[in-house]
């Protein structure tokens, strides 16, 4: 895997983690453990993401807000159709 591919994968992972833990403090060490990288590498990646000239980091949250809201809504509607009884039935079927 090329260096740029690794950097992109790490940056995508970091952005996803920051979105997941939105509003919570998360250390570079925690992020580093998550991506199996050195905390220094994670901090360098973060500094690139917060660069004011980076159109992605400046606009991603706003652009993805509607997409994520729709996904959450769809996910919740899907889960609303599942009952505990149906899950138990599935477990019983797989156990036999």
Summarize the structure in words.
By secondary structure, the chain is mainly α. The protein is 78% helix and 0% strand. It has five helices and no strands. α2 packs across α3.
The CATH C-level class name of the largest domain = Mainly Alpha
Describe the global form.
Answer: elongated
What is the CATH architecture descriptor of the largest domain?
Orthogonal Bundle
Helix content: over 70%
List keywords for this structure.
2 domains, 96 residues, single chain, Arc Repressor Mutant, subunit A
Q: Gist?
A:
The chain has 96 residues and is mainly alpha-helical. The protein is 78% helix and 0% strand.
Write the layout of secondary structure elements.
Layout: H1 3-20, H2 28-35, H3 39-49, H4 55-80, H5 84-95
Helix pairs in contact: 1-3, 2-3
């Amino acid at each position: 895997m090329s260096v740029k591919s690794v950097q992109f994968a790490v940056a995508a992972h970091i952005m996803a983690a920051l979105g997941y833990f939105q509003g919570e403090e998360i250390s570079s060490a925690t992020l580093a453990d998550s991506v199996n990288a050195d905390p220094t590498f994670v901090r360098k990646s973060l500094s690139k993401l917060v660069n004011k000239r980076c159109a992605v980091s400046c606009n991603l949250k706003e652009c993805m807000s509607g997409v994520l809201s729709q996904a959450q809504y769809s996910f919740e509607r899907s889960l609303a159709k599942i009952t505990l009884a149906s899950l138990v039935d599935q477990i019983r079927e797989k156990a036999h």
